[in-house]
Amino acid sequence: MEARLIEDVAAFAQLEPFWNPIVVRSSSNTCHSTFEWLFTWWRHFSAGRHLLLLVAYEHGMPAGLAPLYVGTGERESRDLHFLGQGLSDYADFIVPRGRPDIMEVLVASVLAYRQLWNGIDLEEIPSESPGRGFLERLCTVDGTPAAWHSTVRCPYLPIEGSWDAFYSSMGKGFRHEVRNKVNRWNKLNSHPGDGQGLCCSDRGEVDGAFVNEVVALSDKRRTADGHRSPFLNHPDQEFLREVLPLMGARSQLRVGEVRTAGVLLAFVLSFYWQGVVYTWNTQYDPAYRAYSLGRMALVKLAEKSFSEGCRELNFMRGEEPYKFEWTRLSRTNLAFRTEPMVEPAGDQRTPRDRGMLEAEPAKRST
Description:
Radius of gyration: 22 Å
CATH topology of the largest domain: Aminopeptidase
Order of helices and strands: EHHHEEEHEHEHHEHHEEEHEEHE
Helix content: 25-40%
CATH architecture of the largest domain: 3-Layer(aba) Sandwich
CATH superfamily of the largest domain: Gcn5-related N-acetyltransferase (GNAT)
């Protein structure tokens, strides 16, 4: 077994046939570890960064991946980061389950290129990752102080049984609110045959016209209450304009939407990977806040997930109250970061750091 360093986009592209099969066999088997997501992310966010993609080869074939980059100091510090960091909800080394030897090779290779990076800033690692102990070795060679931090909970709903049985378990209040608000809309905003009734539907593919609708809806929401959206940021928007149609064409996308007379009023944008539906972004027209249109879109998406035989509805990172209307189960994401040698005076932490829930010093290997 050997590891090779990939530093340019052309060599990165050549890994496509091997990438997703490795993801499927790994514990980091999520939508944000796929080739489509990470390769497209690098194409849009590589400026001022150095690719540090390490590939473990076994018998001449790719067998494990360390999808990393390093800031060059022009736009961010020379720390190790995961590809996709900032937009990905889950990240990790991509290693087949039960193969700690591959993880060992990748970590040793990261250390072999120690001259390329100064610190560690690895985010959104699932707390159950089998690679945690190996990652701690990144700070053992030269005593670089680093610590684990809990970042955020990620609620999830196992899909079991029928949709009707599950929906009944949501309680009468939840179900009645959805039904009553549809009835209220139809009573106040539409008449038979005028096309103004609410239409809840789903789709598996999107195009540029749909993204334009999403951008317009997100802008309405921001104007109304300051709500942030990646669709309003650049280059985030350009990345999403490319990656969403690509993932849709490869059956990796699920969208629940609510329209009236063809106009988009609300949506839930989700990714689909290996039987799991990942809800990633939702938005609604603030002019119709009273109708809970976002909830209607999510109900439609969940019903579709049950009917397709999916195994999980994953609400991804974030502890918004609406997620816990659906489930009490959650997982926790972690960050592994270099710690400052001297604590700064006063509270000079970034908003991201102030959101940390706890810090756990990394254990030293002996």
